[in-house]
Amino acid sequence: MQIKKVLATFLASLLFLTTVYAQTANCTLTIRGRVIDSDTQLPLSGVTIRVSPGEYQVISDGHGYFRLPQLCKGTPYVLTATSIGFDSLSIRLPLDQDEIVTIALHHGHIHLHDVDVVGHQQTIATTNRVTTTSREQVAQVQGKTLADIFSTLPGVSMLQTGTTIAKPVINGMHSNRILILNNGIRQEGQQWGSEHAPEIDPFIAKDFKLIKGAEGVRYGADAIGGVIITFPPPLPIDPHLSGELNAIYQTNGRGGVISGMLQSGVNGISGLAWRVQGTAKRSGNVRTADYHLGNTGVAEYNASAAVRYNHTSSAFEAYYSRFQTSLGIFTGAHVGTIADIQARVEAGEPFERYPFTYAINAPRQRVTHDLGKLKWHRDHAGGGSLDIQYGIQRNHRQEYDIRRAGRDALPMLDMVLTTQTLDAAYQTPLYGKWRTQAGTNLTLQVNNNIPGTLNTPLIPNYDSFTAGAFAIQRFIENNHEWELGIRYDFRAFDAAGFDRNQNLYGGQRDFHNVSGSFGGIWRPNAAWQLRSNIGLAWRAPNANELYSNGLHHGAALYEIGDAQLESEHGYKWVISPSYVQGRVSVDLDLYAQYVQHYIYAQPSPGEFIQTIRGIFPVFRYRQTDATFFGADLSVTYELPYSLDYQLNASLIRARDSRNDVFLPYIPADRLNHRVRWQIPLMNKVASDTYVTLEHRWVFEQKRYEPDSDYAPPPPAYHLFALYAGSKLAVGSHQLDVGISLNNAFNTAYREYMNRFRYYSHNLGREVGIRLSYSF
């Protein structure tokens, strides 16, 4: 019945769109153009282009291009381009036919220590919807994890391991089904683990984007569930020193974060710029509504540096970052006997009461992730561009457990994963209505277990080589666009290790597959837009899914793999209508996905394995065919008196279609809505002052198999939060002040997507204070 209602609504929307289109058929002209820096002749991204009459505006993309469709013949339009650090420029066009213009902006002559930025950003041209988190939403969760930032978006939740580890879940997909681009480089750590969080410092980036479609063509294997993209801000060319300093305090865990950034152009060397950044984070045992969780502290120290040189039509960039964290694993998840673990699961909370401390003891993790990048970009005459990029990453993961005979200083798991990537992509100029993008990707990975742990490694040593090539053809018309893409990837995987009985295991596996996508965008007028995309993506099984047979200390689980697993093949169809008119904005994503040979870790109820470190539940990797259906809704409405209301809602239905049962660990339905008041202060000291009240309602997950887990899903819960902030003028600089109150009523609740829900509750009340000083 629900599917019939959705289809009826969708067909009614299409009928309405057709009527509107017929009424606006006379306004079919388009202005296309490019914005460049008048001095360097390089493209400018992020420039606002307004057209009047109509007050319609667009933003130039990463190559400086913009497009203004649905304009009326014979109307004298005025285009105005504005960007920080540049003089505004207006152009008058008596429109009689489609026009192509180039806008050259000049640097402003008045500087109050502002920062001019120029350069190329990676442009995202896709028929799937690209969702961007707002700066305000990012500020409200600063100091937390990357998963917290994206969980503010509809269709995104978190897979947690206790309170210290979280990773994003997109439409029910996580880990190696989500591809993360960190400053243009595929993030490659040991992301196969449910408790292996992305090794990215959120303070490095300013823009966080999400694509929920199957983007296997553009980004390669593993993009079955979606793509997360983090962008640092463009480097400045102005020689004035600028930067920012962030300070955050959070009461729950008594956590503090300090992050600073400095950047500048180089005086006397036009086009040369640099940036350095660093973050330090420390917190202790966090608290639920009623008790502390033992050994849940975090210590994190990160740094990054970048340099860029722009010369006429070329740009060279070098980048390095280091992420280093040490975090505790909740002690109550490591228990001694079968009777003890069963009693704890039945109780649902720890028997012990822990004091507050900053100490991080075993069990704990220590992870260091180094990333280096070299990139060359060139803009060709006529609008083509070439990008060549080399990246190298070194991920060193150590996991410690409680050991006998004073061996706690020795890690139980000690792995180093080294990844090298080489990417090349060329985008042609716009030939009439056609644009082509083609490229190739090479990846070499080497994973080694470091000897000396006195423990059998969870996964073997392995080498992996991947080669891929792709081509994407776009057709751009006045009110619609179409895209067709195809890609081929080949992966050679060679593993070797010794099990606990000193038997050699592993072997060589070859995987290869074709990915494809076809989609379109239809814009009947300035208010309505319809996107639709069908994508095929795939991924090869990971080393842990194939060969693990041991205790995964961080997750407190005993994992058993299957060496005969095949590649996953995902087919995803997304339909995304959107409406923006006046005070109302509506975005809807309807999706259906079929995953052949879906790999998942299934809890094995009643099965426990005893080791010298205790008793642990068993999870076995299995393979089946799976179907996913869902909808994500986002609605914004501007109310009177400077109020606005936003609603985000998502639901997902996932089944093992081969056995006709529910899949485990699928997010429950959830609804998040907020009311925001923009306080109209009329003075020169404070600006952008706001107060936001938020309510989150997570439903009980009732779609599960009763005998497939150690405990049934927890009941539904409601959380309330309050945010407030203001920007204060400090001389010619700015101080951004924010305060947050999360879980305002100190609700005791459990999240189904938390692997430690068997033993404990989630976080209790937390007050946060944030200061950000820009100069």
From TrEMBL:
Q: Which species does this protein come from?
A: Parapedobacter luteus
UniProt key word Kinase: no
The alphabetized list of GO BP terms reads:
siderophore transmembrane transport
**Name recorded for this polypeptide:** Iron complex outermembrane recepter protein
Keywords in alphabetical order, please: Cell outer membrane, Membrane, Signal, TonB box, Transmembrane, Transmembrane beta strand, Transport
Membrane topology of this protein? Multi-pass membrane protein
Location(s), subcellular: Cell outer membrane
Q: Where is the signal peptide?
A: 1-22
